[in-house]
């Protein structure tokens, strides 16, 4: 949060899982700058790889081409306000191609984050529909309740 608010983060690149022999989870590269920066370039490079014997192999040429051409499917520049709205989460997949727009919300309902509903849910036994999107849990909630 401190580094983002003070403009030290230039960009974040999400890398595919199993890229390194010591890490089977996706990793990221954070580029830091000395110049004050009020926008952060988010890149989802998690699909630029080919499967290897023990680990995945990064296709750096395709990744660098996507960054250079700022392909909207993989690259998005975000403001500090947008980063703040997402609680300073630096995961590029949260900002790029978010599937939340693909959810059809019935009339009379709205889609909201689970942490917004902590006060709403009073321990009752009502059945609610939960959705997991990009690591966040969402709940369909009636607008009338």
Please give a structural write-up.
By secondary structure, the protein is of the alpha+beta class. The chain is built from 3 helices and 9 strands. The protein has a 4-stranded mixed beta sheet with strand order 2-1-3-6. Strands 7-9-8 form a 3-stranded antiparallel beta sheet, with no helix packed on it. Strands 4-5 form a two-stranded antiparallel sheet. A hairpin with a 2-residue loop joins strand 8 and strand 9.
The helix-strand sequence is HEEEEEHEHEEE
Oligomeric status: single chain
What is the count of helical runs?
Answer: 3
Would you tell me the overall average pLDDT? 79
Largest β-sheet summary: 4 strands, mixed
Structural class: alpha+beta
List how many beta strands DSSP finds. 9
Share of residues in helices: 10-25%
Approximate strand percentage: 25-35%
Distance between the termini: 35 Å
Radius of gyration: 18 Å
Report the principal-axis shape: globular
Which residues sit in consecutive blocks of at least 5 with pLDDT less than 50? none
How are strands sequenced across the largest beta sheet? 2-1-3-6
């Amino acid at each position: 949060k401190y580094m983002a608010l003070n403009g030290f983060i230039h960009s974040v690149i999400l890398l595919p899982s199993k890229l390194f022999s010591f890490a089977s989870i996706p990793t990221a590269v954070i580029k830091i700058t000395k110049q004050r920066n009020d926008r952060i370039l988010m890149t989802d490079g998690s699909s630029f790889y080919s499967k290897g014997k023990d680990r995945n192999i990064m296709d750096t040429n395709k990744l660098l081409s996507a960054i250079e051409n700022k392909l909207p499917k993989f690259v998005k520049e975000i403001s500090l306000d947008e980063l703040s709205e997402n609680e300073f989460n630096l995961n590029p997949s949260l900002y790029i191609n978010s599937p939340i727009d693909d959810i059809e919300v019935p009339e009379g309902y709205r889609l909201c984050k689970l942490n917004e509903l902590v006060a709403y849910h009073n321990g009752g036994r009502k059945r609610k529909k939960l959705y997991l999107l990009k690591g966040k849990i969402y709940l369909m909630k009636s607008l009338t309740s």
